[in-house]
Amino acid sequence: MRFRNKVALITAAGSGIGAATARGFARDGGAVMVADLSGRRAQAVAEEIRQSGGEARWQKMDAADPEAVQATVAATLEAFGRLDVLVNNAGYAVPGPLHELSLEAWQRTLAVTLTSVFLGLKYVVPLMRRQGGGAIVNTASVSGLRGDYGMAAYNAAKAGVINLTRAAALENAAYGIRVNCVCPGGIDTRAPELLAPGRAEAFRQAMVAIHPLGRMGKAEEVAEAILFLASDAAAFVTGASLVVDGGLLAHTGLPDFTTFVPAAAPLGGR
Ligand SMILES: NC(=O)c1ccc[n+]([C@@H]2O[C@H](COP(=O)([O-])OP(=O)(O)OC[C@H]3O[C@@H](n4cnc5c(N)ncnc54)[C@H](O)[C@@H]3O)[C@@H](O)[C@H]2O)c1
Question: Is this prediction's pTM over 0.85?
Answer without folding.
Answer: yes
